Amino acid sequence: MADDRLLDHVYDGIQEYDNPCPRWWYLVLWATVLFSPLYFLFFHVGSSGWTLSQSYDQEVADNLNLRFAEIGELTADEPTLLKYMHEPDWLAIGTGVYSTHCKSCHAADGSGLVGPNLTDDVYKNVRSLADIAKIVEDGAAGGSMPAWRNRLHPNEIVLVSAYVAGLRGKNLPGPRGAEGKAAPPWPKGKPDGVDLQ
Ligand code: HEC
Q: Taking the model in full, what pTM does it have?
């Protein structure tokens, strides 16, 4: 081409033309470079409620409230735990909470890792169904078992506790062996007299 310009260096006898990128290409490049700090400041630092993690948290909270609108806020007492141990649709939420937050320490099947085996009849801190929810809320052993009161919705605490209560009786062998004392059996069936067992 007429405006091809040879650069003045030579490598091993090879010379090259100076072929710069077209002007529109540089314009797009510089436009994205200028845009990126504005984007970063707006979505990751600045305007409250607009950062990705805040809007994610908000969405999660809205979604939970939507799902829980039907049952309201549950109390973590024995009749409630017993009831939800037999409600598979709601229990699925407890299963989800367990695999997100608990399996790293109690193993996916509940047989224990850092934390005790939850599938046998012996417990360190638990004597009744309500104790499970209490331990989940408050934690134990100076935080080795974390407190979930401020990290989970109260209904999530009830539902994950109901799920954990249901792991009892599987009696899976765990790496830690038996820890604690045998707890009295959970009461049977639904509190309204419909015995599902
Ligand atoms: C960082 C590790 C860790 C995580 C995560 C964890 N736990 Fe634990 N958990 C422990 C330890 C350790 C203990 C034993 C505490 C003790 O020695 O008294 C424990 C104890 C318990 C107990 C009482 C068991 C007993 O024998 O008395 C229950 C119930 C329990 N955890 C449920 C849960 C649930 C439900 C979750 C998820 C929401 C969870 N844990 C998440 C480490 C953990």
A: 0.75
Beta strands in the chain (DSSP E): 6-11, 14-17, 122-123, 181-182
Query: How far is 131 from 125, CA to CA, in rounded Å?
Result: 7
Number of domains in the chain: 2
Q: Which two tokens stand for residue 118?
A: 């939850």
> Would you say residue 10 lies in a domain?
yes
pLDDT tens figures, 38-92: 998 888 777 666 777 778 888 888 888 898 999 999 999 999 999 999 999 999 9
Residue 107 resides in a domain: yes
In ligand 1, the atom with minimum distance to the C-alpha of 180 is 26
Same domain, 22 and 109: no
Q: Report d(CA 99, CA 110) in Å as an integer.
A: 10
**Tens-digit pLDDT profile for residues 182-193:** 999 999 875 554
Which CATH number characterizes residue 90's domain? 1.10.760.10
| Ligand 1, residues at Cβ distance < 6 Å | 97, 101-102, 104-106, 114-116, 118, 123-126, 132, 135-136, 140-141, 144-146, 148, 160, 164, 179-180
CA of 21 to the centre of ligand 1 (A): 60
The domain of 17 spans 6-45
